Amino acid sequence: MGTHTTDSTGSEGALPVPVTQAGREGLAALLARPGSAVIGLDFDGTLAPIVADPEQARAHPDAVSALAALAPKVAAVAVVTGRPAGVAVRHGGFAGVPGLEHLVVLGHYGAERWDAVTATVSAPAPHPGVAAVRAELPGFLDRIGAWHGTWIEEKGRALAVHTRRAEDPQAAYEALREPLADLAARHGLIVEPGRLVLELRPPGMDKGAALLEYAREIGAASVLYAGDDLGDLPAYAAVDKLRSDGVPGLLVCSGSSEVTELAERADLVVDGPAGVVRLLKALADQLD
Fold it and tell me: pTM (2 decimals)?
């Protein structure tokens, strides 16, 4: 689809040009009818820089102000994340910010939803397999001799095994993929691979389903989605589906040398969270 081309404008306020015709059409539609546009954004790696400890992840310092400038000019801004919605709200600093009344956080791949207007989270009952895996996982990792430095992140409706702190992060990641897939399958879960992280979660939860459902709920006339990791590919597919239904879309990659699949499919590649923030600011300025 796209090519691995990074936005090189570098100038504040300049709106970069997508490298694909579909992306240019998506951007043009957004600019023409912003009040019917949905802006979808991943959190980690897109709005927040990747860090060794996810609990220390925070939104880029200028992300909230950029979102507050853009959100009143579009139909909605949706942060679509694998994190619990409340965690993303806290780490993002999204609560109680003037201008973010049109913000929603679709947490746990859409299983949870936080609305800025009500400041509440709505969610169904958790999958029982998550509790079963939660109890079994520590001993399971010990038995298979998981690398020193591998650790478990509690995500409420999912669990994630990180290898970024291991002595050989990539080797640990590859060695754990099959055993964790087997463990997940025994409890009716699936494994979602990411940037040196393997997440065990219920099937049927993904960013694509969350984004597609929300865009249709809003009646979006155009959609922008920005992500950085393998878990964002379903959201890219959702934008492709919307395009096939006549809704223009723009696919943005928050560039990373760790994941190339998104860059290869994107209409526009920007320089990580700082580049995403510049893009959001440029859109807000263009819509003034």
Answer: 0.78
